Amino acid sequence: MRIAVTGSIATDHLMTFPGRFADQLVADQLHTVSLSFLVDNLDVRRGGVGPNICFGMGQLGGTPILVGAAGYDFDEYRGWLDRHGVDTGSVRISEVLHTARFVCTTDKDHNQIGSFYTGAMSEARLIELKAVADRVGGLDLVLIGADDPEAMLRHTEECKTRSIPFAADFSQQIARMDGDEIRTLLDGATYLFSNEYEKGLIESKTGWTDAEILSRVGHRVTTLGSRGVRIERAGDTPIEVACAEETAKVDPTGVGDAFRAGFLTGLSWGVGHERAAQVGCMLATLVIETLGTQEYTLRRANFMDRFKKAYGEEAASEVQSHLS
Predict the structure, then answer these.
(1) Which end of the chain has fewer surrounding CB within 10 Å, N or C?
(2) Taking Cα atoms as reference points, which of 36, 31, 37, 65 lies closest to residue 51?
């Protein structure tokens, strides 16, 4: 399967302040705040939902096609992704804007002050999926992830017009979208991804019941945190897959992206929805054990040992041939 993943491309600049923000704020001067915090360290991490998902797919041996917009400072990030199996040939490079950036400082009480610069992400709306499909010889599935809202709508409409199967995955952007936009983005999707909270928010904003949404999408895939994932299709018994056991909970950031990477890769292998979800859950476990969204290493023998322990001999034998 040729799978394209659209979504934000960004870097995270994370800093730690050894004191407390509250100690630096003067109650009667909050209308004229002017502060500078001397931080102890700077941690720059690669991020964005598009690259996070593509990185995971590359780790599993796939060649996902990343579709998004980045700045003229993207060369180093591009090299990283290329080395890890990601096709970056359809990334639009802005001539004037930096790659999107999240800058955040955390104090000793875990309070945070952050800013998100959208930068080149706003140019994702200028990308035409037909050009992507022509370059790679056609597309079998497009995951439309959190990105510039206009880009998400354009990609969805183009998939419908050109009869390209697509997966709807609003993620962080659901908070700023209204009911009409969400209805447009999910109607006709082959897959609808969300977590449990987003599931309720989708129903509230669209005014559609769970049954009505199931009638408008092929499959509804809902991640349930520590309880795993549920896959539903109208008229079928839901499939529920538990999480694989983790060695430690280090950082939950990027866990949902990793699940999607594993699930999509499983679909490309043709192993069925239950197996695909198991691959996704196993990959998500590697991410929660690691600080950073793309800092884990998939060692195939170890992955299969843990997969077999979590999901059994039959499941492992079915996945093994694809991962070797």
Answers:
(1) C
(2) 65
